[in-house]
Amino acid sequence: MPESSKKDFVEALARGLEVIRSFDRLHMKQTISQISERTLLARPTVLRLLITLKELGYVREIDNQYSLTPKVVDLGMSYISALGLYGAAKPHMEVLSKQVDQTVSLAELDGSDIVYTGRVEVPKIVSVGVTVGARLPSASTAMGRVLLAELAEQDLQEVLSTPTMSMFYPRTNFTVEQLRPRLDRVRANGWAESDEDLQYGVHAIAAPIRSEDLSVVAAIGIGVHTSEVSKDVIREKYLPLLLDAAKGIEDDWRKCAELPNSMAAINLDGLQLLHLRRENS
């Protein structure tokens, strides 16, 4: 941290966020001792932070075990709402999900991970089991490769050297040298795929979503189990629909970006209604 920033750093806030981040799918309920062990914070400190978070409505306590409340989602949704992208993406994701009968996801790059910022679920007997806010190592995912392909060589080296914050261990770990030809194909094709690199039996495709200046700000993707859908179907049927959805998201997002903030919010609601009417017509 730069010296100029240290004096303004609020350690209590950082510790509070650390407590929130200690909860995940494998640690949905925790005692003070468990949180202390995972965050490396002293038990009295953890207790004070939990009392504050409980008072604010972000955690609840039952039988000396703490868990997050749905209010925590507001922290992430504030970012998504401010960006406006998910508002434009959601109707297109819903249409695409119905067309292919598969879950459709939206993700952005954070460090060496992708973070899911939007998801339209289709219940499956076997699933990857990720939700909005989940992190996956970018190099092993199709959406991650879409985002990594836009980075300059120096930035790519820096990103991939950043330790992952994901709890998911991919089947295959890639070095920069191994990843480079795959990213070259992404740039040439305009889309990416991950052929069982994340886990056995999972094949995924992804497409970029570009802002007005043509920089890639997010990726939209579909992940399927190869026991259910063949790779030929994924590439020949699903891919054109995915690319159309990405183009539709870009168009709608750019139109909304040209409007005043209040009108943009109204317009995003209108877009969802318009898509709903088209589906029902």
Describe what this molecule looks like in 3D.
The chain has 281 residues and is of the alpha+beta class. The chain has two domains: 3-68, Winged helix-like DNA-binding domain superfamily/Winged helix DNA-binding domain (Arc Repressor Mutant, subunit A), CATH 1.10.10; 75-277, GAF domain (Beta-Lactamase, 2-Layer Sandwich), CATH 3.30.450.40. 50% of the residues lie in helices and 17% in strands. It is built from eleven helices and eight strands. It has helices spanning 3-6, 11-21, 32-39, 43-56, 73-83, 85-100, 142-148, 153-160, 176-189, 231-257, 261-280; strands spanning 59-62, 65-68, 104-110, 113-120, 135-137, 192-195, 202-210, 216-225. Strand 1 and strand 2 form a beta hairpin. Helix 3 (32-39) crosses helix 4. The longest helix has 27 residues, at 231-257.
